[in-house]
Structure formats: C-alpha cells, structure tokens
Amino acid sequence: MGAGISSVFAGQGATVVTCARRAVDGSPYEFHSCDVRDDDAVKGLVDTIVDRHGRLDVVVNNAGGSPYVLTAESSAKFNRKIIELNLLGALSVSQHANDHMQTQPQGGSIVNICSLSGRRPSPGTGAYGAAKAGLESLTQTLAVEWGPKVRVNACVVGMVETEQSELFYGDADSIAAISKNVPLGRLADPADIGWAAAFLASNLAAYISGASLEVHGGGEPPHYLATTNASAIK
Hints:
Layout: H1 2-11, E1 17-20, E2 30-33, H2 39-53, E3 58-61, H3 76-101, E4 108-115, H4 126-146, E5 150-157, H5 165-169, H6 172-179, H7 190-201, E6 212-215
Helix pairs in contact: 1-7, 2-3, 3-4
Protein name: Short chain dehydrogenase
Family: Belongs to the short-chain dehydrogenases/reductases (SDR) family.
InterPro entries: NAD(P)-bd_dom_sf, Sc_DH/Rdtase_CS, SDR_fam
C-alpha cells in the first residue's frame, strides 16, 4: 500500500521520502532504513530529512500490519510488538515531525492510516485492531494539541488488494467472491488510499483536522442481511 500512496504523492509533484526496515528493490523514491519502533532512529530519520530537504510538509503513517494469530494463542511479546508497530511507531514519527512542523511558517499535515479492524471485531488480529482503534483516537487528540500549525487526520481503510492479498483473502476466485460484498464491487487499489491521503494532506482540506475519512468502498453489509427472511429487508 505504501507504493500506491507514494506514487500518488509523487505524481502530484511531491518529493517523496520512504522508510522501512529493509529497502524495496526497484523503488524510485529516496529511501532510509528505519524501524519506527525505535524512537532514536525515528528522530534521526526526521532530522536527516529536514536537513536534506529544508522542510517537512507531510507525514503519512502507513507502517503496520499483523499476521493472523488468535488472541488466546498470542504471546505478550507478540502483542507488544504489534502495538508498538501499529500505534506507538506512528506516535513517535508524529512527535518528531511535529517538532519541525511547528517551526515552519506553513506548518504541516499528518495522515494516519487506520483500519476498519479498529472499529469492529478483529478475530485473529486482536492486538492490531486495538492498536488501530488507538491510532484513530490519537489522531483526534493530536489535532487538538497541535493545531493550528499542524493538521492531523486519518484514513480508515477497508480491504485493499496488494501483493500480499492472497495471504488474507485467498486466490483470485476468493477475492472476486469477497468483492461482491463490497458495495462498489471491488477491493481498494493502493492508489485509492493514496488519493484519499493526498486530499487530506492538501490545501483542499485546509479546514479539516481530527477527521477520519472512510475509504472502504461503501463498507461491509451486516452478515444478518444475507440470512434474514424479514420482508421489510427483502
């Protein structure tokens, strides 16, 4: 999903800087190795970006994810790592970015990539869902604390078709079947998330802060609708 977000921002003329623990082969964007769970490394990354480019206008906190592990079987170490990656990492990046953005005449914008998993039951990814719920709450708090110089918003993302889709949604036939449950008839393309993030970061959203933009193709209809025989619903 990060590649789709980066592509949209680059296409709109932004200088895109990416980070991860390991480089992605063939990426056209400036890359820095950084584990967002390491606060000292995050500070060094943000300082380096500002030193090299002179300012930091936008941050998109997209790092995250979780393997499927039922909560009864997840260890304390596993849960801690998932929460560090999906919540505390975004907090660390945002804090160090805010330190610079507050000193800039133009301020800055932060976009947090949240998930529907933080708004509904998340079986198999309990710590992830809890962390994403926390990130959406954090978005609202930071918008209050850091305005007016810095705007902070969230994209609440549904199902996205990426290079790892088969791990979560199955093969092409399974994805096609799942897509029928989405009102818009398909899973999101990573660029769909990119355009939503770019809007929130842009001057078109100059009076939007503390908001959550749902990017889920219309949502997921309640399961009971497929089984009920209520005439009013039919």
